[in-house]
Protein 1
Amino acid sequence: MTTLQDVDRADKDRESRAIPDALFTELYIAGQWRPPGSSERIEVHNPATGSLIATVANATVADCEAAVAAAADAAASWAARPPRHRSEILRRAWEIMVAERASLAALITTENGKSYADAQAEIDYAAEFFRWFAEEAVRIGGDYRLSPEGDKRIVVSREPIGVAVLVTPWNFPAAMATRKLAPALAAGCTAVVKPATETPLTAGAIVDILARAGVPAGVVNYVTPRPAGPAVRAMLHHPAVRKLSFTGSTEVGRLLLHEAADNIVSASMELGGNAPFLVLESADIGAAVAGAMVAKMRNGGCACTAANRFYVHRSLADAFTRDFAEAMRATTMGPGLDPANALGALISDAERNKVAAVVARAVDEGAIALVGGHPPSGPGAFYPPTVLAGVHPDAAITQREIFGPVAPIIVFDTEDEAVDWANRTQMGLVGYVYGDACSAMRVAHRLQAGMVAVNKGVLSDPAAPFGGIKQSGLGREGGSEGIEEYLEEKYIAVDF
Ligand code: NAD
């Protein structure tokens, strides 16, 4: 049902599909936008055109250490604020973000390449973390019990863990920042956020929103160092830092876990995925194809949750493949700001070339490209919707995260076979299952994944615990669990 508000919003969106007037290109430390300690700048390009959008400050290691020091200075007073104050600031941040949805979405599309519709959906999702954790900020509980021996009261209070370093990827430049900042601030932690070098402008805009919402100086700091390695390493070795929350590739996550170990820094890791999408014998083909389109094509396939491998029961394989290929063929591709395009650009030519190499290898191994299969000529990091049939269950493409609009289809005969193939990976973030409720739930329990979508093509929800098992990560973001990552229990033994 469309409401008057929707109509109003749609009108505004048409008016203002332009990036914000002010871009935040410096560092934000101790409540001030300030230049870095070096004159070096980082160029940010529009991947759909290759054109330069802006240059941002290249933060030095000393800048990053200053950001941690500012967060450390602000820590005690922020932790001491009444939860209701922290909650209301986060609520204001949600309101501002929703009001500025159109220009923020345009900014995401411009620096990331994704379609404007995907960018709008990201802003809705990203803003919701502020609202959700505004609500969680006032619900941090504790415990009070009598010891079994009756010799004391066991009082457990839950306290902010301390200064948090938040490192985010380019594929969801707004949502990955708010999914960390919101629970950190709600819990009473102060933070330094380091966005991906490819997409720093969206994170800068979010930091500005938090400042306008009333976050005091030093509570949120923002740095953009390149290379990231030495700067993040220095922050993790700063004695004030007690938390690392990282979203990105498993390779970098592994490296940062090693670095966090030196100072025993608590680490939450949201890493790579390799989601299987299972179409069981009892599935409704229309629903499965619609779900496959969302699970594969949301964010142009550049989501850790993206369906990476499609396992389809032999009895449905022909019909599913035909209808899915048709829907993929009908997907229009081009610059994301043009509303006609459902699929935008990938983040860079290098990423586009990686996707092309994965497809070329799959074809060498016997797959047939029913749709797509070759990058178009011309400017921009585009790769077309691609469906690969006849993929062998052990093909290399089943073992790597594609991160692009490419769907390999593998045919199975038995449920055991499908589950075995689906679980044959070191990743364990998401699985998708289509089928009758009983079979789909049975398979959902057998999949090795932190999250399973049953007869749904998308499952991300700020109110649900998001995270992976195996090499897809440690810890959860969102839900009532998300704030726990930023809290520590303190046990006080009391003898009256
Ligand atoms: P990436 O690992 O290359 O980079 C992520 C972040 O780490 C960026 O900010 C980058 O600048 C920084 N970084 C890179 N090298 C570093 C180093 N040596 N030391 C410290 N920081 C470093 O990942 P990406 O290419 O930006 O994002 C894509 C990956 O992120 C995919 O694997 C995707 O699955 C994953 N991802 C996971 C989730 C999740 O919730 N599980 C969500 C989104 C993306």
Protein 2
Amino acid sequence: MEVIAHRGNTFYTPENTMASFLSAATYPVDGIELDVQWTKDGVPVVFHDEKIDRTTNGSGWLRSFTYKELRQFDAGSWFAERFRGEKIPSLEEVLEWMKENHLTLHMEIKKPPKKFEVLLDPTLHLIDEYGLSKRTVVSTFHHPVLTYMAQEAKEYFQRAFLTKTPLFRGIRYANAIQAHAIHIRHSYQAMQFYPLWAKSGIPVRAYTINREKEALRCKRLNVTSIITDDPKTMTSLFK
Ligand code: G3P
Ligand code: CA
């Protein structure tokens, strides 16, 4: 069973920060999941919400700030005083660190702007420049991004569609949009589909699995990977 650290070591550190990724990597995880959005001046940064209010000391829409402006905010002290000074990382900062390890990068593209290509293309190019495209999985709820990537012959990136509910014809759908994997919110309903999908050979990654009982259930049902806020507990179970 693969263990993927959701936004880093989210239970113990401020999500989507370098502190969180470094902390997650002290456990034998297989990969790191993070969220990517673009600043007003087109810099890809690692951040979950559309607004910066919950996880920084600032306020407003992430997209309304330039990269330089965003770096003024503190992304650690909301979680605990000892993390004061953490910044919103640029994707490049994470790639710089990733090239020194062997982890898989699960990059979720958050709600993209209408003309996402002009931002997505240089971002993928950047990952490629760092030599990381072969161990990057691009996932998103915005499936036109995946279709675009497939059409534009971005073959060297793995692509996964994200879904909150199981699709009855999940495999057929994955084939239609040329996705390599299904990333799904874990639920009782989703569990009914895991064995069928596993049989077809498509990787199935379930989020967000934080309870041991659920993790063991996923394993029994042949889920490929769990995406968790608690890499410490989950790696102790499976590694
Ligand atoms: O990768 C799955 C998961 O991260 C999707 O939901 O809201 O945690 O980004 P969210
Ligand atoms: Ca995510």
